[in-house]
Design goal:
Ferrous iron transport protein B, Helix Hairpins, alpha/beta, 2 domains, about 15% strand, binds 3'-O-(N-methylanthraniloyl)guanosine-5'-diphosphate
Length: about 260
């Protein structure tokens, strides 16, 4: 069984990888590039390999790390993704999560740095987060080792299920219509659960995604239509849609202590 560990730089990915694998690690380079590749066996599970992906902010095609990470996810299709996010920086970290969820790979989110979040008095409502994302969510402190075992057990569980829960979120209706039209054009060459990811990338004019597909359909009509309709380029449209979704997650799932109020009480 292969589990990919994915997250932003500084989210605590190395700390978690070490906690999960102990000294059972193999370090090399990704083929053809000088990006470090680390894999290790999950402690107590000889048959579970944890693949540490490079720290990234997005699955866009702009940095070597992003390309390495997404090529691995698309070509190797790990059994599950363990997405580590920094709980003290939800907004920025969730940007990657929204993209990982579109790959159609079973996923568990580990909200890290919970020792700091709890100390601050801020609250992350895990149940609501789980609902809004449609995936399992576990709180952890990779540094203190809390929740790590539970995260590993949950990710094994979802990997065994084999099928990913489809993303629960929908973008604005016009964008969804265009994505539907692109997904239809993708036909049977792309497995159903991967269609949303490829449709979004094609709409974003991602020039490297064509290489990952046997045959990339022409989606220029869809691009022209939505750019005129929303008066913006498609890449910005999708980015904005993601931030609208993330804002709604933060509104419902995060309570920040109001320091001003505290002082006046
Ligand atoms: C330094 N809680 C807390 N409090 N800190 C954590 C946790 C957690 O749950 N998880 C990780 N960290 P990486 P990437 C550091 O290195 O694993 C800390 O990039 C320091 N170093 O210890 O490296 C972790 O692999 C000096 O902090 O992240 C590390 O994803 C002073 O978060 C940092 C303070 O973790 C990044 C911190 C010399």
């Amino acid at each position: 069984m292969k589990i990919a560990l994915a997250g932003n730089p500084n989210s605590g990915k190395t700390t978690l990888f070490n906690a999960l694998t102990g000294s059972n690690q193999f370090v090399g380079n990704w083929p053809g590039v000088t990006v470090e590749k680390k894999e290790g066996k999950l402690k107590g599970h000889k048959d579970v390999v944890i693949m540490d992906l490079p720290g990234i902010y997005s699955l866009s095609p702009y940095t070597l790390e992003e390309v390495v990470a997404r090529n691995y996810l698309i070509n190797e299709r790990p059994d599950a993704i363990l997405n580590i996010i920094d709980g003290t920086n939800l907004e920025r970290n969730l940007y990657l999560s929204t993209q990982l969820m579109e790959l159609g790979i079973p996923m568990v989110m580990a909200v890290n740095m919970m020792d700091i979040v709890k100390k601050s008095g801020n609250k992350i409502h895990l149940d609501k987060l789980k609902q809004k994302l449609g995936c399992e969510v576990v709180e952890i402190s990779a540094l203190k080792g809390t929740g790590v075992k539970e995260a590993a057990e949950k990710v094994i569980q979802v990997a065994k299920r084999k099928t990913a829960v489809p993303p629960v979120h929908k973008f604005a209706a016009e964008v969804e219509d265009v994505l539907d039209s692109i997904e239809t054009k993708l036909g049977s060459g792309v497995p159903e659960e991967q269609k949303r990811f490829f449709a979004i990338k094609l709409l974003e004019k991602d020039d490297k995604i064509g290489m990952q597909m046997k045959q990339a359909p022409d989606v220029s009509d869809e691009i022209k239509y939505i750019e005129k309709e929303m008066d913006d380029d498609t890449e910005s449209i999708i980015t904005n849609e993601r931030y609208v979704y993330i804002s709604s997650i933060i509104d419902e799932c995060y309570t920040k202590v109001n320091t001003k109020e505290k002082l006046t009480v």
